[in-house]
Amino acid sequence: MLITIDQELPAGTGTSFTVERVDTATKADAVRAIAQASRNLGINVFKIQPSFRDSMKSRVLVAFVGDQKSFQRNGGYDYPSFSTRDQSTKVVSFEEITTQDLRGRYATNADRSHMEQLAKALSRSRIVVDESQSLWSRGLWIGATIYALGRGGLWAGVAIIAITLVVSTAYSLSRNRKIHAIKAMHGYTSGRILVGELVSLLATLVVGLMTIALVGLPFLWLINNFHQIWRLLRGLFIAVAVLTAYLVFLTLVLGGASTFRNRIPAVLNGEGNELRDGVIAGFAQFMVVAVLFGTISGSLNRISAIQSTSRSLAQWSRISDQYVLRLSVNTNTPHEDNLRTAPPLMKVIEDLDSRGKAMLVGYNGDSVFPADGNNDPYEPDGSDSMIVSPNYLDKQPIAGLDGKPVRVVGNDVGAFTLLVPSSYKGDPGALLKKYAEYFKTQCQLGVTQKQKPYSCSPHGVLVRTRSGQDISLFSGTQFMPAEDQQRLSLKDPVVAVTSPSSGLISPMVYLSYTSSDSVLFSDPELLQSKLDHYGISGYFQGIDNAKDSVAYTLSLSRNEQRGDIIAISFGLAAAMMAILVCSAAYCARRRRLSFVQFIHGYGFFRRHGSFLIMQNIGMLLTLMAVGIIGSMNKVADLVAGTLLFAVSSLIMAITVSVYESRFRADDIKRP
């Protein structure tokens, strides 16, 4: 959570805003305008942008300093990173701005009044600020908490803890029911009784917090030397306040001693709240199992994705380093910018491709759905089709029918080669014609009337390939966990091979491929020099090592795995507790009837069969509902659901037997 907050609002800032458009005559005029406004208002403004290299874990803060005391108090140019492992930060002066795009996210220590003045000052200088995207510290803490819990896979754990507290609080209050009755009989008010319960709960909470502090503070000092400790303390304070409020709410809702003030004799004679506790525990049991089942299913999918991505990472390691070009982080990039950027980017790609330092690995099968409803996976943009450049075949050989790697040489205008596996059952000639028609549209996409039209006379060559080949997509480089990435490889796909200089793929389409990390480069220095040469560096976020990006996706998934382990551990403990409370409440409520049935020779299932059947039906319906909602159709999901059902049913039967025996022994001992 703190890393998320630090990403959005660096240390010493409390507000963020977005510069949507810069209409000044020159970039230097805009830089001077921002610097002048910062000095006049006595505030600090930081342009937040990823580093041009390793942008997933490093960033640059361009500082416009108007409040030196605040700037130095928060580290100055030596930024106090909360976690250098997750994100490194470099602070530079605005005087170092060169090719950077001035649009994008900014953060400032301005309050609301100064923020309004800043927006007006920038507007007078023809810098358009989108105030609708302004983010204030209070709202950010809420949003960051929600985002961080989701990113770490901890929402399930939070839900389970909340449910567990309901059951444990209700059961604790029920066990103290006689004590409350005695206090009420001696003149204690309901409020005084509840305060006593709250003091006991909060004392337990304080002991837990002290334990966490004794263990956590030395560890935090070793990790980051207490950088941004004030933010950590604020986060802990908010968490403790929310937890305390929740416990107070539960105690007030479940605890009122006034509800039995007129039944004190009955309470002293053993009247309990078994029905309420049993109903609460029963519903809690179903809710916990639902969350637990969903978490286990997600964890199984995550394990599979991590295994696949790890194999992909090993493949990345066997080839020379490849790099992806990230598009700008600006969320409101105008279409005109794309039209302006695409043609020079196309020239850069053609240049590097001719040197063997760029390759296309185009795959849209996970995101494109045919408008005509045709789901042939081998047709263009199908789930088993891809478009590559000839350099791709050097990194991922594809064997022909003779077992030798297919070679595609040449960059003739309009030329492409279609590699069709021998396992393809359709008409290869007809498929070749469909790809030719497809390229007729691809070469014109995004081409304006002012631009020179590209060749739209595709002519292809058909080559059959050996079946049984796994073809890598060289994917997994997006900034997301492994389980959210697109497919990593295809089994016997149809592969269209065409050079960037063939003119069959328009610059706008290549820009789209670049945005999805489908264009890979092997010489980052040459790539950056070409981008600078054509004056388009500012339109891009940075150049990242693809292998490092894949490793980053694995780290995200492993972070979520830790959350899964926590949630599953809490879930198992919570489910066990709910079953115990439910069984205890059930046995206590019918203890006399069970004893009478027992001495008259009723068997265990005859005594408790209706209850156990009802519990099993509820459990089965819960698991089925979660499976339907979550589209769980894998064998692993079925096995996990079956095990949960079987184990919970067995534990319920055992606990009912144990509690019945305990109550029976008490009844026999009673005079």
Automatic annotation (TrEMBL):
TM regions (residue ranges): 154-173, 194-223, 235-257, 278-300, 565-588, 609-632, 638-659
Keyword rRNA processing: no
Stretches of the chain forming a coiled coil according to its record: none
Annotated keywords: Membrane, Transmembrane, Transmembrane helix
Domain of life according to the entry: Bacteria
Name of the protein: DUF1430 domain-containing protein
